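Dear colleague,

Thank you for sharing your sequence with our group. We've completed the structure prediction you requested, and as agreed, I am returning the results in plain text so they can be pasted directly into your records. Please verify that the sequence below matches your submission; if there's any discrepancy, let me know and we will rerun it promptly.
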Amino acid sequence: MRAVTAFLVLLTVSAVWLAAGPPAFAQKPSLKDFAAFSPKKAKLKAMQARGFIQTGLQPVYPADADCLKGTSDFASQTRSDGSRRSLKFYRGYHGGYDIPADEGTPIVAIADGTVVHKSPGRFIGGIGIILQHAPEDTGLGAWIYTEYKHLMKMPDLELGQRVKKGQEVGLNGKTGTTGGHYGSAGFPHLHLTAWYSDRPDYTTSKLFVPVDGRWMDPLALFRSETLLDSHSIRKLDKDVKKVPIPYLTPDGRSHPETSKVVWPFICEAKD
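Please find the predicted structure tokens below.
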């Protein structure tokens, strides 16, 4: 009964928030937030306490469609080419999930959501955009945040703008990847980050942080279950960790049709 009441309260809060539009938050990140979320100031124990650990989730791509595939897991210590990650950022651990794609490939919103932050591309993450997804947008029972990084250019979306599942939110690029490990050629790919919180508020002062936020393995987005905590997912049986990937085809259809969440790239149906 308590769980039902809490969920109804969460739905009421999110409905009011969506009607009013995204508010402005002046709260600054705490020292604990910096320890868990700051790329250069993060502390390993603080990161892990907030869910920054490998979960063992494995994607299962559809047999009847061609989908771009991930090559570097969340919280791994290696890049897509097998090299070790720099210790300068998140203590050498990967803060997202990488999906290589040609430059200019459209990236789509994984679910209905609201644009809450845009990054101009001055740092290693390159040009990026963050969407906030209310509990009813995903059906996952929490406020979800998804970040799309290394975009080719800043998308023509305004802060506070609502987007639909499958709507283009940017073009794949390599901003932030040139001049370092990958040299002048860079590495075009989508770096997909995900966080969640029971609260709808966040701060963008110095650092984007969901208030009371936690890291999540982006693959947990596609499980269609409300279990998001990395530590709990890590304890699941191996068979349960296989994640069938829901997706969109060029005709705009979701597979499965009832899925509220889809892969961030359009998948081509096989003949």
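Summary note from our side: The radius of gyration is 18 Å.

Kind regards,
the structure core
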